[in-house]
Write a structure and sequence with these properties.
heterodimer, A: 321 residues, mainly beta, 7-stranded antiparallel sheet, disordered N terminus, B: mainly alpha, 54% helix, disordered C terminus
């Protein structure tokens, strides 16, 4: 009874109190282990995704064999939606007996593969603290806090299985109390064992499907006519999409620090268009829009207000040099 | 005809063209299926759990009830020549998949920051059908919705739910208000 009370007091006093910093070397080791485990292990289970009052449950089967990675995730609520991934190829099976193929590059991060490739860069902007033990999906998990070294990104909490290195739960936090804004949690998980590739195939009737040819309309650009000076540290340009037509051109630049993503959209103002300016928020995503000369810039980021503002203020046209 | 439906969804048809497509849509079950499918592709890619909740019926009902308003409002928001819109909705994954632009393009006329109504694709359509046929600048929210989809999809949030209803709440509005 005494122990129960103690546990209660500890958990009620806020998780950050027990934070113990991990050395950079140890931090890299543990992140590398998690990153490798989610790729190289066989596992199957169910996870819950929560954000802004929405709750979705998915079933996930993941295998790693001589052909590489493959996985199937299926929504358990509502109409069944299935996403099959084999290496770089993703096929979505849609509820109305249709399917579409997607390029891997349009889907970059899927739970539990949330960590970036370059973990050293991530550790330049985050420090790792251990937060003790918690039970997740009936597994005794280690908890750690990824604490930003500046106020330009949100903290994250990760729960992992110290035995297998498997990531069990991930949460994006916000505010002084470390309020959870978004989280993925395994509710049930079987790690290891042999899973046959055939088990990945959705149990749907083949004759019900109708194929859609994949057409890549998006133009991937390597450079833009915009300069970005003094963007927030740790963020790198990961993708530029451009679309130009006779009457319009839209540039979408995407930046990431490994965990958080910020998008910049730039469009020319139309002759009759009133420039817009303002800051708004949806859960932990901030949006700031402002005119730059004859263009309208919109920054949308899963990052704090200061980050989004700094991005907005860093954009200048090439000609301004 | 499929191209015309696609064009209608893009908001690039003029009054007469839109009216004829709507009339054809009303008569033809197969076309209604296409209409349904276009929405479905978008909904599913946004991973809505409500993706196939009889959109066909809802849309058909609304079309039956208020076709004139739809046409008027659609036309009033179309400030650009035909065939422009399909190109602009480039970041719609559905567009790239099926060659169909389903994200409607609406001229970004002004910023109405206090509005926090859902501005999803279906919601847009519903709103167009429900509101009076006077010109109303809802364009900024439309852009935000498109941006939101592009941002979430490219950053790997396929597992999101019901995100077609984007609601940003204004924090501050320096400079221009409505």
């Amino acid at each position: 009874m005494k122990r129960c009370l103690l546990v209660f007091l500890v958990s009620a006093s806020g998780s950050w109190v027990n934070a113990e910093p991990l050395s950079p070397q140890k931090s890299l080791e543990v992140l590398t282990r998690i990153s490798t485990s989610v790729k190289n292990l066989n596992y199957s289970g169910a996870y819950v995704y929560q954000r802004g009052g929405n709750v979705d449950t998915y079933q996930l089967v993941h295998i790693f064999d001589d052909k590489g990675e493959a996985e199937r995730r299926e929504s358990l609520d509502g109409p069944p939606k299935v996403m099959l991934r084999e290496g770089e190829r993703i096929t979505c099976y849609l509820p109305d007996a249709k399917y579409v193929n997607l390029d891997r590059h349009s889907v970059t991060k899927l739970f539990p593969s949330l960590l970036p490739e370059n973990l050293s860069d991530l550790l330049k902007v985050y420090s790792i603290n251990t937060l003790g033990d918690e039970r997740v999906a009936a597994i005794d998990a280690k908890v750690m806090l990824l604490e930003p070294k500046d106020g330009l990104r949100y903290p994250y909490k990760l729960w992992y299985d110290p035995v297998s290195g498997m990531l069990l739960k991930a949460a994006q936090l916000q505010g002084h109390q470390g309020q959870i804004m978004e989280q993925f949690t395994f509710t049930q998980l079987q790690i290891g064992g042999v899973i046959n590739r055939k088990q990945l195939q959705p149990k749907l009737r083949e004759q019900d499907f109708k194929a859609y040819a994949e057409k890549q309309n998006q133009e991937v650009a390597t450079a833009t006519e915009w300069d970005l000076k003094s963007i927030p540290p740790g963020f790198k340009l990961v993708k530029v999409m451009k679309r130009t037509t006779e009457n319009n051109s839209l540039t979408h630049m995407m930046f990431s620090d490994g965990l958080s993503t910020v998008s910049l959209f730039i469009e020319p103002l139309k002759p009759n268009q009133k420039p817009a300016q303002g800051l708004s928020v949806k859960e932990s995503t901030y949006l700031y829009t402002k005119p730059i000369g004859n263009f309208q810039l919109t920054v949308m980021g899963d990052a704090p207000e200061a980050t989004v503002m700094q991005f907005a203020n860093s954009v200048t046209p090439h000609s301004a040099r | 005809m499929q191209e015309k439906i696609s064009a209608l969804l893009d908001g690039e048809l003029d009054h007469d063209q839109a009216a004829s497509v709507l009339a054809a849509l009303d008569q033809d079950d197969e076309l209604q299926d296409n209409w349904h499918l276009y929405h479905l592709i978008g909904d599913v890619l946004r991973d809505s759990n409500q993706a196939n909740v009889s959109i066909t019926n809802k849309v058909a009902t609304r079309l039956n009830e208020e076709p004139a308003l739809t046409v008027t409002h659609q036309t009033s928001l179309t400030k650009h020549p035909p065939r422009e819109a399909a190109n602009k909705a480039w970041y719609s994954v559905a567009a790239s998949l099926a060659g169909i632009a389903f994200v409607g393009w609406v001229a970004w006329q002004s910023f109405s920051p206090a509005t926090t109504k859902p501005v999803g694709i279906s919601a847009n359509l519903a709103q167009q059908m429900q509101t009076s046929p006077t010109v109303k600048p809802v364009a900024y929210e439309s852009r935000v919705n498109d941006y939101w989809l592009a941002h979430r999809q490219l950053s790997g949030h396929m597992t999101n739910s019901q995100d077609q209803q984007v609601q940003f709440v204004t924090v501050q509005t320096p400079g221009e208000g409505r």
